[in-house]
Structures are given as C-alpha cells and as structure tokens.
C-alpha cells in the first residue's frame, strides 16, 4: 500500500495537490501507472455481527493514491459522456445523483 492513511491525505490535501497533479499528468501522458498502483492490497474490514463469520467482513483495498486517479478519470469520462449526449437520460445506474431507485 501507499502507507498513507486517508485522514492524512485529507489534512495535507492543499499542500500535496500540485505534486499529485504532476504525478497524475505524467501517468496519463505516458499511458502507464506505477506498478504499486496496480497491486491491490486487500484487507478484510469488519462490518457487523459475529467476528467469526467471514460474511461479516468486506474487502477494502489499501491503495489510496491510485484510487484517486481512477476516480478522477471516471468522473471525467462520465461528465463527457453525459454532456455529449452519449448516455441516455433514462440511464440511472452508476450515475451521480441518480440511482436505480430514482428510475422507478
């Protein structure tokens, strides 16, 4: 993992944003991502119920910086597809401010 707790990232966001922009831009321009970002370090996170049952845990990936870039790219693509009319207004699943329930 990147050894950074999400709380630390939030607290120092303004100080590291320029460096992250450079790293993300370099990754996008080169069409590659660092090997560490491609390796998922999954750990079980307890949800509820008895701790002895595997079903009471959810998997959580610990690679935060790679997930940040993934989220930025996803948001950019979704916005482009919506603004260019490539996604139907009736599409509700996996869309911001929409859900399968809003489609009912």
**Portion of residues within helices:** 40-55%
Unreliable spans: none
Q: Tally of extended strands?
A: 2
Termini separation (Å)?
40 Å
Oligomerization status of the protein chains? single chain
Structural class: mainly alpha
Q: Which sequence of strands runs across the widest sheet?
A: 1-2
Tell me, rounded to a whole number, the average pLDDT: 83
Order of helices and strands: HHHEEH
Gist of the model:
With 104 residues, the protein is mainly alpha-helical. The protein has helices at 6-11, 13-30, 35-38, 64-83, and strands at 42-46, 57-61. 0% of the residues are buried.
Explain what this protein looks like in three dimensions.
There is one protein chain. The chain has 104 residues and is mainly α. It has helices at residues 6-11, 13-30, 35-38, 64-83; strands spanning 42-46, 57-61. It is built from four helices and two strands; from the N terminus they run H-H-H-E-E-H. The chain has a two-stranded antiparallel sheet with strand order 1-2.
Task: Summarize the helices and strands and which ones pair or pack.
Layout: H1 6-11, H2 13-30, H3 35-38, E1 42-46, E2 57-61, H4 64-83
Antiparallel strand pairs: 1-2
Record keyword descriptors for this entry.
single chain; 104 residues; mainly alpha; two-stranded antiparallel sheet; 4 helices; 2 strands; 46% helix
């Amino acid at each position: 993992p990147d050894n950074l707790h999400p709380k630390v990232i939030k607290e120092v966001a303004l100080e590291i944003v320029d460096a992250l922009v450079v790293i993300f831009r370099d990754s996008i321009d080169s069409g590659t991502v660092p090997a560490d970002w491609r390796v998922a370090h999954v750990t079980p996170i307890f949800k509820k119920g008895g701790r002895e049952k595997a079903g009471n845990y959810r998997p959580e990936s610990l690679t935060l910086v790679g997930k940040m870039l993934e989220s930025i790219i996803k948001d950019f693509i979704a916005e482009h597809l919506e603004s260019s009319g490539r996604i139907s207004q009736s599409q509700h699943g996996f869309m911001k401010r929409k859900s399968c329930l809003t489609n009912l």
